[in-house]
Amino acid sequence: MSGELTGLDTFPKLLMHHARARGDRPAIREKDLGIWQTWTWAQFAEQVRLCACGLAAQGLRRGSHIALISDNRPRLYAAMAAAQCLGAIPVPLYQDAVAAEMVFPIQNAEIGFAFAEDQEQVDKLLEILPQCLSLKRIYYDDPRGMRHYAQPELMAYEKLIELGREAHRRDPSFVENEIASGAGDDTAAMFFTSGTTGVPKGVVHSHASLIGPSLTAARLDRLGEGDVILAYLPPAWIGQNIFSCAQAFVTGYCICCPESAETVMTDMREIGPTYYFAPPRVLENLLTQVSIRMEDASRLKRWLYRRFMDVANRVGGAILDGKPVPALDRGLYWLGDLVVYGPLRNVIGMSRVKVGYTAGEAIGPDLFKFYRSIGINLKQLYGSTETAVFVCVQPDGQVKADTAGPAVPGVELRFTPERELLIRSPGLFREYYKNPEATRQAKDPEGWFHTGDAGYFDQDGHVKIIDRVKDVGRLADGTLFAPKYLENKLKFFPYIREAVCFGDARDKVCAFINIDPEAIGNWAERRNMPYSGYTDLSARDEVYELVRECIERVNADLSAEPEIANSQIHRFLILHKELEADDGELTRTRKVRRGFIGEKYGELVSALYAGKTSVHVEAQVRYEDGRTGTYSADLKIRDAKVFTPAASQRAA
Length: 652
Fold this sequence. Notes:
Elements (H helix, E strand, L loop, with lengths): L10 H11 L4 E7 L2 E6 H17 L7 E5 L4 H12 L3 E4 L6 H10 L4 E4 L2 H10 L8 E4 L13 E3 H14 L3 H7 L6 E6 L9 E5 H14 L7 E3 L7 H14 L2 E4 L6 H8 L3 E3 L2 H16 L3 H22 L6 H21 L7 E4 L6 H9 L4 E5 L9 E2 L18 E4 L4 E5 L6 E2 L3 H7 L6 E9 L5 E6 L4 E2 L5 E2 L1 H9 L4 E7 L6 E7 L1 H10 L7 H5 L2 H18 L10 E6 L19 H7 L1 H8 L4 E9 L5 E12 L6 H6 L1
Parallel strand pairs: 1-11, 3-4, 3-5, 5-6, 6-7, 10-11, 12-13, 13-14, 24-25
Antiparallel strand pairs: 1-2, 8-9, 9-18, 14-15, 16-17, 17-19, 19-20, 21-22, 23-24, 25-27, 26-27
Helix pairs in contact: 1-2, 1-3, 2-3, 2-6, 4-5, 8-9, 12-13, 12-14
């Protein structure tokens, strides 16, 4: 692979190479109206060429920025590559962001061009046009609902391609000349951070910083042109961009775009990806669906499932890692693969997955073990927007549930005395756009990137991340307080969707809980417990007792970890509403904005620490049909059992 790519230092050069070397192989597929449509590499390259000519005719120039706001669609990828052909800089934005959230990136990057998928995204851009004076051109992919739009800024994608075809006829060598003038050090794309703690920052990446790590990781996992990936996560997230764009351009494998978010599971079963990425929340949802289906299955199926999952839990991981296993267990596992594991992998669309990754948040050991035990080579990795994702990767045979693996080749790691992880890597970003002070704070003169993540190396040299450095605090008695670590342990339970822990400089830890309405709803239905929705469920005494049991199991685990044993959760309440990105409580990548939540619900936090058994809350709620109403109720507050630290027990 490395020799084949010599001299191909930009994405457009890689694209044209694939068009020549494997032009008739599938490059990108999209399911449209229930039918998979395919562009070969040759067709993809031709579409990019025409799109680039059209954009150039419209005034897009080297160094300009173009916003991309869309689900994963072939034309999105074509527009991105077309901009790169011209030396322009794609800036993908989250397609589920409200209009106001798009103002800062567009203003900050002085974006003049935008690619919008459909009427919904066009409406957002038109709404903020008075605030975004630089935005002059908006191209839309889906014409449905656009018939009566007459704004001069708008143009259909098909019209753009027509302009490109005319321009290409006038100068057939234009795009090739533009591509040839590009270099690996040129800016390839800009990704805005999620803004967990403040204003988002534009992370500037070169072609080299994206291509290098993508190629290294592809070699580690022996990826090639025969592989297939499902592109279903937001294109604005760098992980989706690396897996479904950068690595595809490096290897020549096929990108598949699902028809919609609702059809992802069906589409996965149809295309059978060989390479897969999912954050823990997606894997949790899949397992929750499996558990719900098994609860409704016949008695025989439930017995077979429990019997063979016991076998899988005992030896599945060892078999996957190629370790010796007794012949009887190996035979039982083979039988289980016929009747349980194989059908289960097919149901969740992973029959052909040869390597899968998870990252973004900690994954529960039981959840991680489940997937590996049924024969799915799920591994963990660590990275960030600034490091082009691939910093630590678990190699085959060195997979652990509680680490992110060792550094990938070419990456240097070290920890400061304060436990902050520092990284030097070929995949490091160039700068935060128009933010030299933030760049100086993040990258020191020696080239080390200060991640802000706290952790340590285990005895095998694997990296273990426990929290953000800024979030690691101390309880009043000096005990280490790592809220994200506690929250992740709570979210390992299928009944808990989100958790927010408080405790820095306080005498104990308390928590807000968001229940998972699907898992809890199924649990309630099996017990013939009527309910009207999330708010009703969250107030039930039975649900409080279920959540209390989960918290007490976490506390029991924490009691065995000497450094944080005293940070067990003493009190909790179940929030009356789900935390939402639209309400500012989560980022678009579904990270908890703990500081914002603490301020917004300050009265609830105070009630937890004041020893109250309930607290009155009044809030505006938004229903699925767009209506709003007022919610008024007394939220219950409950105590959880805490355990004597194991170290104290041994001393006694």
